[in-house]
Amino acid sequence: MDAMVRQRNEEWNRIIHRLDKAGVPPDVRWRTLILYMRNVRGFSFLSERQKSEIQQLIVETIKAREYTDTQYADVVRRQEEILLGPHKEKIRMALDESEALLGDFRELLLRKKGDVQDLETLTVELVESEKDPREMISAMRKAFHDVVQAMEADMADLTRMSMVDGLTQLYNRRAFDEHVECCARTCLQERLPLALIMADIDNFKRFNDTYGHRIGDQALRVVAKVLQTHASEVNGGNGKDPNAKYFAARYGGEEFAVVLRGVGLSEAAGLAESLRSRVERYNFTIQDNSGNVLHGGIRITVSLGVAQLDPCWNGAWADNLVEAADKRLYEAKERGRNCVCWADPD
């Protein structure tokens, strides 16, 4: 017991010595903050990017040697942004999706109100008809059964709508987040590879500025169509099976994601190259509302980043996988766009 206490005291003295050497003043607030940020780097729920940003913040703080109240408040603010930033983005997207779902839900409620009113009218008519009671009960039972079936179908539609992007009909960000989290856990447990492709339409803002947002939406649908066809081929005809090998989703804006369950990095890179080539070859035309072709031969290209789940990551598996693929996507943009970048997990 004494040896354990002595060991802890020695470790604490070493930490104090490092803080003194780094020039951190003997202020309880500053020393607590620096030590807290130092320990945060070991939290398994943080992504590698968040840990790296916390480390950079510690280095910048110690280098600045500016230990004022204003600087303290600024460091606390930046630390909170690093820790909470990804969650705030997910909350914002969830609120946007919820707003759209509320509109769909209102429509369903109005339809159900009409169905219930029809059921009420039918019931009154049957009672007033003075038919045989058995016939009346049979007719009412059938009417109730039809309404219940319609409500069950509407609930299934509502569930589907909550997981599908309205514009492209691909899975949405919510579905993607749930799927990649589930796949990460499953693949780690079963020791299967898991790869992710992140794809982004090149120069999409300029495309929108040139042709307008309506045509920009058409371009998003085109890329989604290519993804759906590709998924169907890889999955053996079922492109929308959430449990299949190839899971395509609209990640946000002009960015798309493909989760590849049981697929290694090399195969994933090959699929990404196939996807890039298909989009590049697509003959995109602009049509007016009557279907007349206004512009033809317009080329759309995408840049793609590919990464594989690394079992050595310290938690936050899904976030780290997205960050790794996003980093490769950024490299593809830096290399001139319309290409695929990938690298080994290490």
Automatic annotation (TrEMBL):
<dbReference type="InterPro" id="IPR043128">
    <property type="entry name" value="Rev_trsase/Diguanyl_cyclase"/>
</dbReference>
<dbReference type="InterPro" id="IPR000160">
    <property type="entry name" value="GGDEF_dom"/>
</dbReference>
<dbReference type="InterPro" id="IPR050469">
    <property type="entry name" value="Diguanylate_Cyclase"/>
</dbReference>
<dbReference type="GO" id="GO:0043709">
    <property type="term" value="P:cell adhesion involved in single-species biofilm formation"/>
</dbReference>
<dbReference type="GO" id="GO:1902201">
    <property type="term" value="P:negative regulation of bacterial-type flagellum-dependent cell motility"/>
</dbReference>
<dbReference type="InterPro" id="IPR029787">
    <property type="entry name" value="Nucleotide_cyclase"/>
</dbReference>
<feature type="domain" description="GGDEF">
    <location>
        <begin position="192"/>
        <end position="345"/>
    </location>
</feature>
<dbReference type="Pfam" id="PF00990">
    <property type="entry name" value="GGDEF"/>
</dbReference>
<dbReference type="GO" id="GO:0052621">
    <property type="term" value="F:diguanylate cyclase activity"/>
</dbReference>
<protein>
    <recommendedName>
        <fullName>diguanylate cyclase</fullName>
        <ecNumber>2.7.7.65</ecNumber>
    </recommendedName>
</protein>
<dbReference type="GO" id="GO:0005886">
    <property type="term" value="C:plasma membrane"/>
</dbReference>
